[in-house]
């Protein structure tokens, strides 16, 4: 993922970096996938897209009462994913994917696009909100949480310390037991 979003000096290189969305002039087709809450953030970017429907596609996950020019709205993430996969399946060489939303959403879409055959350099992402996925090393499950330094795993209940290590493969931060002597501190206090 190319990026210009600043990281804290000395932060681990695995942390994802993001940039404001910009149209790729060489692209033959543009697909934008966005959470409804992020629509206003990327309005100016959307306005730069070509107006031909076969060249530009805007897919929005969320409430259909929002308005966006030439947008298809999906109330569930599963419906959005099915439509995106069908769009990518029909795509030709030269497609660029632009994603905007919270970190968990961005990486779920990136993972799906990668599984469909897109290369990382064909995908650009802009971060809109803090919720992020945390991968629990104890039960091998990923869950979405606010950006807190410690969370309770929704899968196994262990109190997790969220490490500053991000796995692009699983699209999540690493969560390890915060206190091995008292792993269930939150529930048994």
From TrEMBL:
Signal sequence segment: none
InterPro entries: DmmA-like_C, DmmA-like_N
Keyword terms of this UniProt record: 2Fe-2S, Flavoprotein, Iron, Iron-sulfur, Metal-binding, Oxidoreductase
Domain Dimethylamine monooxygenase subunit DmmA-like C-terminal intervals: 134-176
Keyword Oxidoreductase: yes
UniProt superkingdom: Bacteria
Domain Dimethylamine monooxygenase subunit DmmA-like N-terminal span(s) in chain numbering: 14-123
Entry-linked NCBIfam families: mono_DmmA_fam
Name this polypeptide is given: MEDS domain-containing protein
